[in-house]
Amino acid sequence: MPAPTPRPSGKLRAAATVVLVRPGPGPSGFELAWVHRTRGLRFLGDFWAFPGGALDKDEPEPLGAAREVLEEVGLLAWPGAWGLSQAALAGAQDAVHGGRPFGEVLADLGLDPAADPTGPPAGPAGRLVPCGRWRTPPFGPVRFDAGFYLCVLPPGATETLRVTGGELDLAAWIDPAEAVASWARDEVLLAPPTRFSLEALASVPGDPRAPGWTARAAAAVAAAAPEDGEPTRIGADFRPGIRVFPVRTPTLPPATHTNCLVVGLGRDLVVIDPASPYEDEQARLAGLLDDLAARGHRVREILLTHHHPDHVGGVTALAAATGAPVAAHPRTTARLRDVRVDRALADGEVIELPGDLPGARDRRLRVVLTEGHADGHVVFLEEATGGAIAGDMVAGTGTIVIDPPEGDMSVYLESLRRLEALGATLLYPAHGPPIGDPQRLVAEYVAHRLEREARVLAAVEQGAAPVVELVPRAYPEVAAALYPLAARSLLAHLIKLERDGRVRREGEVWALAAG
Predict the structure, then answer these.
(1) What DSSP line would sit under 150-186, residue for residue?
(2) Structure confidence at residue 47 (pLDDT)
(3) Does 334 have pLDDT greater than 90?
(4) The pLDDT value given to residue 230
(5) In a 10 Å sphere around its CB, with 0-12 CB exposed, 13-18 middle and 19+ buried, how is residue 410 labelled?
(6) Taking a C-beta distance cutoff of 8 angstroms, is the pair 263, 252 a contact?
(7) Contact 201, 19 (CB under 8 A)
(8) Helix 315-322 and helix 279-294: axis angle, to 10°?
(9) Which end of the chain is more exposed for a tag (fewer CB within 10 A), N or C?
(10) Is the pLDDT of residue 10 over 60?
(11) pLDDT exceeds 90 at position 480
């Protein structure tokens, strides 16, 4: 068995992904296994991907890759395992799910746990062939550094994919060219590592068991990954023409970046929230837009979700560089001091982005006023795909601060319900990765705020007190260092409860309302 793969440093978590391949009847001449991630997952829910996941502590990467394949689809990419029956594989899969160590499962099957699944096989198929690395973009505090492996099933191997629940609800074999076409038709969600790997494989048609094919395919997949494994230059198109480009900003922890979005497939693009005040980050965004300009695109307009500094820090620089006008809701404009706004956005307005280049599709952004976190805050609903560019209405990492007097809990809850009613299929928050089950997430947000409201009311019921004394009662799990931030949220709840007639204010003291 090879030595353990060196662990990534910092916030990167080691992971492994496996592309399983078999001969097929489609245009590529082969099929690969892909899996559907359950819609309710916070990280890439409703996305299609390859089998894989995080490594266990001190687990060698090839070992973890083989374990993940067994856990997720019930196949075993291990020397000597390809002749095992479907029943034996199902039993091994259930054993791993039940907590039995993978090495013991291998031994139970009569296999050598110290074998090398990447070692030379008897023929051109049956081993894990390294084919590049990908890193999760800097969306939030949990990121993955994933080694990719290609594995061609040898003749006689069991090809039945078995999913037993958990993070996955479906697995299937598909021709890579058809998978890419499904994404281009807005039918499936793909993260960039999956899509670029599919495109690379579709460029290497032929019999996957023929001599030399595995080496060519692995080289193509590896070449599709960015040099450092991270798509910082190109951003992430989770849907065609809706590109998420995280930029470093002075935002609130645990977030470190704000998502700038570039929307459009035709000649005209819009840039939403060019957020970074840092010159190096502005240069990265300019590089992306230069690349797009070379392919016939131009920035027609810059749109703002709201006025907070971690969303508008790069607006002036981008407007100067591109000559594009800036548009925002009038109440956002009223709060901006150093950013010139050229046009007012209206609630319900639709911004058309025609697909007027070969192969392009239309994109349409509907403006939806969603205040409560910030005056003039808007969400942009992309009507063709159902994706909602949500700004600071929700977060893929951290939480949303409602800070009076601008922050209004009553209005925020109303806006959450308006967001839920949009029927979005994907949420693009300003901080964190896209969220694949918008209605469930928004319902969780509403339930959480109402549960917190009940705790605030219970804290007041313990006795009238100023906010500083109510915080530890209502937020017993919060560290004292975070009391000032918790106090702002608690005040927002108190103001809502006062409006609802549940509490009253007597100077700095809050008490239950009479009766």
Answers:
(1) EEEPPTT--------STTEEEEEEE-HHHHHHHHHTT
(2) 95
(3) yes
(4) 66
(5) middle
(6) no
(7) yes
(8) 30
(9) C
(10) no
(11) yes
Average of per-residue pLDDT across 400-412: 95
Structural domains present in the chain: 12-224 (3.90.79.10), 236-436 (3.60.15.10), 453-512 (1.10.10.10)
Q: Which amino acid is at 270?
A: V
Bridge-based pairing of strands 387-391 and 378-382 is: antiparallel
Quick one: which H or E segment has residue 438? Answer: helix 438-461
φ, ψ dihedrals at 32, nearest 5°: -130, 160
Distance, CA of 339 to CA of 336 (rounded, Å) = 6
Q: How many residues appear in the chain?
A: 515
> pTM for the whole thing?
0.91
**Percent of the chain residues past pLDDT 90, beyond the cut:** 86
What integer pLDDT is reported at residue 5 of this predicted model?
38
Q: What is the pLDDT of residues 484-495, one digit of tens each?
A: 989 999 999 999
Q: How many CB atoms lie within 10 A of CB 30?
A: 25
| Cis bond before residue 405 (omega within 30° of 0) | yes
Question: What own/partner pairs with CB < 8 Å and gap ≥ 24 does 356-360 have?
Answer: 356/266, 356/267, 356/268, 357/265, 357/266, 357/267, 357/296, 357/297, 359/184, 360/241, 360/265, 360/266
Burial tier of 412 (Cβ tally within 10 Å: 0-12, 13-18, 19+)? buried
